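Incident log, structure service

09:12 report received: a user says their structure output differs between two submissions of the same chain.
09:20 pulled the input from the user's history:
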Amino acid sequence: MPRAQWRPTGYPELVGTVAPPGQLVDVRGFRLHVHCGGAGAPSIVLDAALGGSSVSWSLVQPELAKVSRVCSYDRAGFGWSDAGPMPRTACRIADELRTLLERAGIPPPYLLVGHSFGGLVSLIFAHRFRDDVAGLVLVDPAHAEDWVKPAPKEQVKIDRGVRLCRYGAITARLGLARAVAALVGIGQLTLARGLVRVVSRGGLSREDEAILAPVWKLPPEVRPALPQFWTKPQFFAALGSQIESICVSAAQVLEATASGFGDLPLVTISSTNPGAYRLHQQDALARLSTRGRHIMASNSGHWIPLDQPGVVIDAVREVVGVVRA
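09:34 re-ran on a clean worker, output below:
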């Protein structure tokens, strides 16, 4: 895999049609989208999975808004946010998130809720800005030890992900991504997959599709925004860079968590039947805090915020109660 960070250049910007529900905040020369609701402390901050966005929390955020102030955001290149500087490492993203919260006037303390890749960002944020963090909820998080020196099968996933993002940028430039999005929108998933297989030269698997939030599990009212998210070259550039930089991000997380988090309230949530290896990893993650706890979703795949949002909501409520107590 080439060491140089790949990004598409010279592609026209695609104009979206769905207005952002939140505000666009200038963060060091580019804008990030943040969407907040509710009131009270701590401020709950939702960080989505690798290919996710603020809409990935559509089943979780409204319920948490009844508990405290809650904000979801879009990382640079995703959702309604502008493209940001490369490479898209977890440490860079955590720093950008801190600036976003400051400039948007979202006060600490923060209760960070990170899903999958968002869990890596949350761990680094909690380490770098420990005095401002009140708690952590990690939802089926990625585990840094799997990626800092990836085994051959993991390296294959990295290489394939970067390659597919290249194909994705080509489809966006040629307008084919809009055709795929239109087919998905009318329920023609078989035709959509067929077109994607042609463009990607057969490289897209069902496992790769899981990088994006499952469309059919999102509320109908948020689905119209997805085509404009997934048809912009900047999305594929950011996603490709996050994938290509995963080894660097993993090393950053291992350094950040080496000394643990003292008595910081921490809950980590596993998907159903994760296997002995993943259970061991999740237990070790919970032990980063003397008040850490590991729970398991009863009937959920990797996308717990969409499969069983109540599990995430209850875990966050529990930590809010601890913080307020």
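09:41 both user submissions now match this output. Likely a transient worker issue. Closing.
09:42 reviewer note: Residues 152-174 form the longest helix (23 residues). Confidence is low (pLDDT under 50) at residues 1-16, 191-206.
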